[in-house]
Write a structure and sequence with these properties.
Length: about 425
Amino acid sequence: MTELQMGLIGLGAAAVVGVFGYNKWQEIRQRKIAEAVMKPQHEDVLLAKEAKAEVAAVAPVERSEPEIRFEAPEPVERLEPVFSDPTPSEAVADVPMLEAEEPVVPEPAPVVEPVAKAVAEPVASPPVASPEPAEPMHEVEAGDVPAELLDPRLEYIVAMELVEPVSSIQILHSQRSTLHRLNKPVLWVGYNEKAREWQRLSPDVDLDVRRLRVGLQLVNRLGPVSEGDLVIFANAMQALADELMAVADMPPSRVLDQAAEIDRFCAAVDLEIGLNLVSRSSAFPGTKIRALSEAAGMVLGIDGLFTRYDDAGRAQFSLQNFESTPFSADSLRTVTTHGLTFLLDVPRVDHGERVFMQMSEVAKRFADTLQGALVDDNRQPLSDTQLEHIRREFIGKPQATMASFGLAAGSAQALRLFS
């Protein structure tokens, strides 16, 4: 290796050492400048003149790391922080100069951000909460109409929601002349806002109504509703809605098929059981009939029947004259008859089997007292075995069928349907 090559290698190594030393010197120099900039003894350019005087009066404390201090302000008039651009002389007034020939101007970003936060946050005015509007009052949910008042299986129901309450008497009289042409009953139900319940509307009770339900009964013992009755009812409800400035919510149009289906169901369970008591020799006097009936808890009605009712006022069974003359309070003093009939309306009687046994016991008591005989429609004597067969086959089974349909015998729906 020549002397020239050795010299070049030496110069290269010296250059590397020089660059490394220069970088190290620059690193130490910049660290000293940063420490000088971060020291807190220089003026805070973001505070007003009065705040500067107070800060200057406090002797700075030497610390190695920058620290944000939150001091409670004196109870004097609050001064809002003023953000202004500092003059070049103010920005560098307290920065020490390491070398006179190279003055260094510190970057304002590290100083401005922490000071601005430390001053502005404590003195910021708390936000004034605006009063929230009161929550609007919601109407009480009326819920569905109880089935004992209106049943969508048995009635064609029209719903109306009125803008303002209207007298129930006015509502009932509105389409009275038109609805009288119908062959099926119309049921009126309104929501009582005070009692918070649905109730039947009647002409003798005036109730302010905003929620209205009107039902046309689809079936009774006269058969299913006709298409003509449906048209009359729908037109009357639309006229009523126009008068009350309401919207009539009509149900789906499959009404006639629904009515025919219900009518077939009714035909399968609509039975009336009769036990006949006939005289063996002399006729039954009316006075004895009345005495025995009242002793059995039966009362004479305007329909000419003695009827026994349960605690809820529902008819259990009745007694009528086997002959064509109905009973009355006046005629019973002198009337005589050769036969009586005990009747039980199967779909309209709750716990029909039990009631039938009670009716059978009353009929046997009448037979013993009046010297008569219990017979069927063909005038054949009825034994206890035959009475048990009637109870099981013609009362128990039909009422079980009604229960499976969700329509209990003797319920409010059954009383409407079998009327």
